[in-house]
Amino acid sequence: MSAIKNIRNAAIAYKTLNGLLCVYKPACVSLQQLQNTVITNLCRDLNALPDRPLEKRVEIQGPTNDAMTVKLVTNYADDPLVCGPRYIKEDFRCSWATHLGLFSSGVLLLGINDGTKLTYLINTARLTRAYKVHGQLGKATDTYFWNGKTVEKSSFGHVTREKIDKVIAHMQAAHQKTMFEMSGLHMESQTMFDLASQGLIRPASNKLPVIYGIKCVHFNSPNFTLEIQATNEYDKYLWTLIHDLGVQLKTSAYCTGVQCIRQGKFDLKLALLRKHWQLQYIIQNMDKCRSIMEENSLLLKPKSASLAL
Amino acid sequence: MSLVKLFSTSSSRFVSCFNKSLVSFSQKVDVLSKTAVENSSHSSCLEQTNEDLSTFTTYFPKTFNLASYINNSETLQNLLHLDVNLSKIEKKPQLVEKILKLSCGNIENFILFIKDYVNVDEIGTFITKNPLILYESLEDLNVRINYLQSKKFSSNDIQRIVSKNPYWLMFSTPRIDRRLGYFQKKFNLAGQEVRHLSTRQPRLITYNLHHVMTNTFVIKEEMGFTDSELKKLLLKKPKLWMMNQRALLERFNYIHNVMKIPHLVIRQNPEVLLCRNYIVKQRHMFLQKLGRDQFEPKKENFIPIMALAEGTDTEFCKKYAKCNIDDFNMFLKTI
Predict the structure, then answer these.
(1) Where is the Pseudouridine synthase II N-terminal domain (chain A) (predicted)?
(2) Within an 8 Å CB–CB cutoff, is residue B335 touching chain A?
């Protein structure tokens, strides 16, 4: 609320709208739609703020062969009713840091105006993202997600929490091995050993998904929830993960929902809900994001491949 | 040799011919310049003059918006003083040309006519929505008003119809008559009910009839309301017939098939279909999580269906969910 008090007019508010914004993306809303809503709301709120006074124009009147008078008259062309609203959608640049699929929900970083440069940095810095992936046992679909056609049904009575944990631990170990292979260094070199001794490392390329940790946080047969920490992943990859899990458990499974709960240091607590996509909340949120980035300068430009640094 | 000769003679003939025509052309130019000098008192535009040139207008280049013309056009300024949103009108280029050719008298007569039917503050938005009405002749407009009077619409009704639907007066009397007839026949309405419908939602009468037909199909066949229920819905919430049919069906689907609300309750509270699906959905899921999703009025802890669509989230949490708004927000971040 303190931020909104400082806004005296729309021009000042517009100038503060440079930076990163953390929103909560609802499922079944595409990123383009979300971007459009945020920017339309910003325009609406900015146009409702007190406007600058209308410009004046100089008019030279009277016959040209006599003494002419110079007058200052109102410039009708400057009226918002004539030249259109002061702020329109084209005044804003907007981009997302990392893509989030149509059916996924959760934390999403948007850059507005100068913040578009920051989203590029975040994308190249390859921040880890944490997901809650919901799945259901006993059914397989052709898209591996709830929207697909059912292709297989199977019994799942034999699946227990322990069995899931076992398979998941195995998956995590396999991914840890690829993590070292993806680092771009020779596996049997001293440099690789030094790097690996520091802990987890981020991959050299941005193509292959790398999973750092999988944990089963909820199991109530047939529904279960996994918590996955990963980089370079995409929604379809997480769906296939659930499918593979089903196969390894000797049954079938499909994904019922993907929710991103953290990206780097930006978590759910920070994310703005759909009803709060308004100017005052957006400005506050940008301030918070800015302070997070100032505290963690290595967030955007990491110096080492090690995740801990 | 002979060929070269032939060419040279022909070319010389051609040159002489060209010279002749050139001479005649220069003579003509001379005549022209002489008449020009005789007509105007000075021979060059660069010379100084003592005449009053303020009556000359400046050159108007082609433009994309009306803003470049408004400081010189009294008509446009008058329209602006009426609060007409010119920036919206200029989005349709074919209208702009017509607006620029309007005379002040046209506008004046129209305003004197329309002020009986439309609130003075709303004339601006009225013209913004339908600027072409300035081109209709006043006699036609009077005939259309008379038609409404002959159909026993009260003066309040006529005021509401004209001000809520700026396009109504654009429709000719036979056309309006056909459309009123269509609604009367299709939904089996009495005369008083037709009047009620057209006053309640005047925009529906001039709406795209194909859209009305598909929405009737959606509500009757796909949702499964009976004919009498259809009529009650139409008279209570005519706006349902102007909505996107896909959105309408999606909302109904959630309320009827997921929440298991019977047709009767939806018929009594059709406003719930006007509310966006995600709002109803997230409130319902929250109540489900709390175990408070009890929509039967005869049992305890009854929650009226409109609670899911009306009011702010704070009110909803306090009155029906009986919890803090933060809990609700927290829940929203888990779906």
Answers:
(1) 100-231
(2) yes
Average pLDDT over residues A194-202: 84
Does the beta-carbon distance from A76 to B313 stay under 8 Å?
Answer: no
The pLDDT tens digits for B259-280 are 999 999 999 999 999 999 999 9
Of the candidates A26, A61, A273, the beta carbon closest to that of B329 is on A273
Å between B54 CA and nearest CA of chain A = 5
- Cα A296 to Cα A181: distance, rounded to the nearest angstrom: 28
| Per-residue pLDDT tens over the stretch A238-255 | 999 999 999 999 999 999
Residues of chain A with CATH 3.30.2350.10: 128-263
CA distances for A31 relative to A129, A174, B239, angstroms? 18, 32, 30
Angstroms from B210 CA to nearest CA on chain A: 28
Q: Which among A63, A82, A275 is the nearest to B67, CB-wise? A: A82
Instruction: Tell me the C-alpha distance between B259 and B253, whole Å.
Output: 9
Distance CA B131, CA B125 (A): 10
**Is the pLDDT at B38 greater than 60, yes or no?**
no
Angle at B161 between CA B155 and CA B163, to 5 degrees: 100
Half-sphere exposure of A291 (CA within 13 A, CB side): 6
A142 HSE (CA, 13 A, CB side): 4
Topology at the third CATH level for domain A128-263: Pseudouridine synthase (3.30.2350)
Contact A216, A164 (CB under 8 A): yes
- Rounded CA separation A142/A236 (Å): 12
Residue B318: phi and psi, rounded to 5, are -70, -45
